[in-house]
Structure of Dienelactone hydrolase family protein:
Amino acid sequence: MPHTPAMTDTAPVGTLDGWAVAPFSSAGLTHDVYERGSGPGVVLVPEVPGLTPQVLGLADHLVDAGFTVAVPSPFGTPGREPSVGAVLQVLPRLCVSREFRAFATDVRRPFSDWLRALAVDLDGRTPGPGVGVIGMCFTGGFALAAAVEGAVLAAVLSQPGVPFAVGRARAANPGLSEADLGVVAARAERGEVCALGLRFSEDAAVPRARFESVRRALGGAFEVLELDSSPGNPGGFSRSAHSVLTNEVRERPGQPAFEARERVVAFLRERLGTAA
């Protein structure tokens, strides 16, 4: 049965206990995938530095909400606490990796192909009309890239940071090739897929122009939640606030990141089903 978490002054966390893990291979890549839950499928792709206790806290919340959650581990050490050292251990490799192509524009990234295959596999093993994909930070844009695949009915782009926003063109780039964006836009026009984007208002790593590009392509099929992180904001967020669904969440109804996480759950239910 779902549990009601106690109110917290820190981000919710989880552990690897109870998660089944197995390797998944496709597109010439192999990554471990952690899975738990029942109900429609949701792929939750971790942010840098990896599958942290905070990411697991979000995964647990989605399981409690009635979803089968698959969490790939494409980088980092599963269960490791986030730290500057952990980021520095992971980020340099990601910056030069051909799998992710962190600086490139108008390219098809190999990890996108692997993620699409995982979505299809999860869809084949879970109830409901299709699956959702959530990407965060470094992996945020990959959720939209996964929506090329017909099994993906819902894409959540939380603070999508790739390509790195160096220069105007990269700042406005949605993180997938023009051809793939065209496929997603056509699916959106037919009502086959919807997307939800989340960012903090002062987050320079996730320029507003990036979401404007997605909105031009998807129109009304793209919903944006922008949390106020300007000086003196009601939520008490710092100007450096970044991780909408993990580090900034407090288990307090009314707290803006809490409400953003609740909107994500409602969005997934709208697209995939499960009882409220």
